[in-house]
């Protein structure tokens, strides 16, 4: 099937969404069933204890959960503050949180502590930028304030009524949460489920509820091997890291070709499998002079990926290392 399609379902009673591009699985969202807070959830937290040497602070969350704030500067035990979950916690570890709370919707992001109205740089048409700014200024209250607005790339050419409604709803939600006067650890805003995330972050596309279209494609992700034409990559998570091994029957130029194919495919595979943390690539043999070509191809592929990934570099053994934010739960856990 040509074109983009969104498939929504509830396998096992959990919200799930699959994004297909030309019949190929491009992104996948499945809700967890263990009650762990997902990225985007907002809590009133209580600072518990700082960790010397790491500069962070453990925080008390409701239901016996523990949060981890990476920056304890200016914080004191017993202090209450709003925090937002930034990623998925590894088993047995605290939930990662930040005090930089954002309220994100399809067309806008409301930014506490960063007043002003800005338009995504990806929107380059001056007339369109002026149109969006005019609409946003009509919604935002006049006078000094602590809230700001970022108009997302999805807002480009958006209908004025839909954009206004999105801005007003998100602004009101931010004011409601920030105006909370309660005490003690409490969940103030739940994380969006897979269906809301698909609406919020994916491009507009025809929607189907025939989950069987995605089921076979998802099942294939449970296997470690990924075809790269003549070569094959094996993606295998371990307790410490994610190992990626590229095998090819060809050497020389064939090795570089296989590695470039991996560079193009790797962000999609990591995204679909929900893998993050330390990632080590055991690439096919290639000349050292070709390393920059590989790095350039990988850097270009990662630019289009929504999950923050850093290229660390080469090891003495010739492996290439990455670190990737743990924004999603591993697919194998969800399934």
Q: Can you describe what's shown?
A:
By secondary structure, the protein is of the alpha+beta class. The protein is 26% helix and 31% strand. The strands form four sheets. The protein has a six-stranded mixed beta sheet with strand order 15-16-17-18-20-19. A five-stranded mixed beta barrel has the order 4-5-6-8-7. Strands 3-2-1-14 form a four-stranded mixed beta sheet, with helices on both faces. The chain is globular. The two termini are 26 Å apart.
Low-confidence stretches: none
Radius of gyration: 22 Å
Helix and strand run: EEEEEEEEEEEHEHEHEHEEEHEHEEH
In this structure, how is the largest beta sheet organized?
A: 6 strands, mixed
- Helical proportion, percent range: 25-40%
Summed up:
The protein has 335 residues and is α+β, with helices and mostly antiparallel strands. The protein has seven helices and 20 strands. The mean pLDDT is 93.
What is this structure's SSE topology?
Layout: E1 4-9, E2 16-21, E3 24-30, E4 42-51, E5 56-60, E6 66-69, E7 80-85, E8 95-98, E9 103-104, E10 108-112, E11 116-119, H1 126-139, E12 147-151, H2 160-178, E13 186-189, H3 194-201, E14 207-208, H4 212-220, E15 225-228, E16 231-237, E17 242-247, H5 253-273, E18 277-282, H6 291-303, E19 309-314, E20 320-324, H7 331-334
Parallel strand pairs: 1-14, 6-8, 11-12, 17-18
Antiparallel strand pairs: 1-2, 2-3, 4-5, 4-7, 4-13, 5-6, 7-8, 9-10, 10-12, 15-16, 16-17, 18-20, 19-20
